[in-house]
Design a protein that fits this description.
Elements lengths: L5 H9 L6 H13 L7 H13 L5 H9 L4 H17 L1
Pfam families: Sel1
Organism: Microbaculum marinisediminis
InterPro entries: Sel1-like, TPR-like_helical_dom_sf
Length: 89
């Protein structure tokens, strides 16, 4: 089975404006659960945060659940990454 290359996906479709709340939420779920990628709570929080900003229902709740498992520094890092992504897109 081929491994899904998240960096290529993020750089192509999302950079071209295809970032729907649903896609962003799915990225958060992939990183939170480790489905097809290494689990990464900082990245999961980032995508849940962006999905919530785009109005995706439930994304804020998942962001909160992930944040409960992170340190304050990790949450701050995730928030910086989300702001940076939103500023670029």
């Amino acid at each position: 089975m081929a491994r899904f290359d998240m960096q290529s996906y993020e750089d192509s479709g999302l950079a071209q404006g295809a970032a729907t709340g649903d896609i962003l939420f799915r990225l958060g779920m992939m990183y939170a659960t480790g489905r097809t990628v290494e689990p990464d709570l900082i990245t999961a929080h980032k995508w849940f945060n962006i999905a919530a900003a785009k109005g995706y229902p439930g994304a804020a709740l998942y962001r909160q659940e992930v944040a409960a498992e992170m340190s304050s520094a990790e949450v701050a890092e995730a928030q910086r990454a989300a702001r940076e992504w939103l500023n670029l897109h």
